[in-house]
Design goal:
With about 130 residues, the protein is mainly β. The chain has a single domain (about 5-130), classed as Thrombin, subunit H (Beta Barrel). It has one helix and nine strands, in the order αβββββββββ. It has a seven-stranded antiparallel beta sheet. A hairpin with a 5-residue loop joins strand 2 (about 30) and strand 3. It starts with 6 loop residues before the first helix and ends with a strand.
């Protein structure tokens, strides 16, 4: 029996679900004309305008030291095609988009290692509020 190519499903999901965007910033070395290397500009995206689907999950994280302080940790999940070059510790600027293409909200943070399955990959970025 032949195996099923789940990549086809990932492409279909991406066509309908990936309406949000991210820019990926990554520390890297660039080769200069003289053959030496220098760090890349941290303000210039490594990749820009990548189509993704952004979703959220919230975790109540009580602070045992401060009575009544209950910071909420919002986990921003980035779901995208397997071929997108996400790496652990990439700085991400994520834009949650409205149906008409306007930006609803912008998030800035660092992602952990992406988790890859047969058709999609997911990376998580924490956004803290109430601290």
């Amino acid at each position: 029996m032949d195996s099923f190519d789940f990549g086809i499903i990932g492409g279909i999901i991406g066509d309908y679900m990936d309406s949000d965007e991210i820019d990926i910033y990554r520390a890297s070395l660039i080769e200069l004309p003289d053959g030496s290397f220098a760090p890349s500009d941290p303000n210039v995206p490594f990749y820009s305008g990548i189509k993704v689907h952004i979703s959220f999950s919230d975790v109540d994280n009580p602070d045992p030291v401060a009575v009544g302080a209950v910071p909420i940790i919002h986990a921003l999940r980035i779901n995208c095609a397997v071929g997108i070059d996400l790496q652990n510790a990439d700085r991400i600027i994520a834009r949650k988009m409205a149906v008409d293409g306007t930006v609803l909200e912008t998030y800035d943070g660092v992602i952990g290692a992406p988790v890859v399955n047969q058709s999609r990959q997911e990376a998580t970025m924490s956004v803290r509020q109430g601290v």
